[in-house]
Automatic annotation (TrEMBL):
Transmembrane annotation, as ranges: none
Pfam families: PCuAC
Presence of keyword Signal: yes
Stated name of the protein: Copper chaperone PCu(A)C
SUPFAM superfamilies: DR1885-like metal-binding protein (SSF110087)
Keyword presence, Aminoacyl-tRNA synthetase: no
Annotated Gene3D superfamilies: PCu(A)C copper chaperone
N-terminal signal peptide: 1-21
Keywords: Signal
Top-level taxon of origin: Bacteria
Length: 154
């Protein structure tokens, strides 16, 4: 191997590990997509994002090959009426976790390609063009409790 080739290979390994380390700071657990309401091509995704790094991470987008678009949403109380509101980003403070759950923060999924598979690839992208690929499981609405399973009715 020529010297230039070994330097190039070393740089590729160095930059690959630097990029991976930054993305690896955010650990995603419990990712799932709620089964859509029959006749509707929309749903929501939930998970816990844990930032094990020393700097905050900011989720700016999500995408999936099985959804036309994905938005970051929250619920807010507007004079006694719960309403969804789109967020442009979601900050995960250093050393903390943020949980996306029914009735709170979530990813709103639009234009679903039905039927959905049991395991769904999902890409979460953070500021600085760092992305994290995760697998979300599909959960039946029947397994969800109370009104939380009715989110797709909005």
């Amino acid at each position: 191997m020529r010297f230039a080739d070994s330097v190039r290979a070393g740089l590729i390994i160095l930059f690959s590990s630097v990029s991976f380390a930054a993305v690896a700071d955010v650990v995603v657990s419990g990712a799932y997509v709620r089964e859509p309401v029959p006749g509707r091509a929309m749903s929501a995704a939930f998970m816990t994002l844990t930032n094990n790094g020393s700097e905050e991470k900011v989720l700016v987008s999500a995408n999936a090959p099985w959804a036309d678009s994905i938005e970051i949403h929250t619920h807010m109380n507007d004079n006694g009426v719960m309403r969804m509101r789109q967020l442009q980003s979601l900050t995960i403070p250093a050393g903390e976790s943020v949980t996306l759950q029914p009735g709170g923060l979530h990813l709103m999924l639009f234009g679903l390609q039905l039927p959905l598979e049991e395991s769904l690839p999902l890409t979460l992208c953070f500021e600085g063009d760092e992305c994290n690929d995760v697998q979300a499981s599909l959960r039946s609405m029947h397994s969800m409790n109370g009104m939380h399973g009715m989110h797709g009715m909005h």
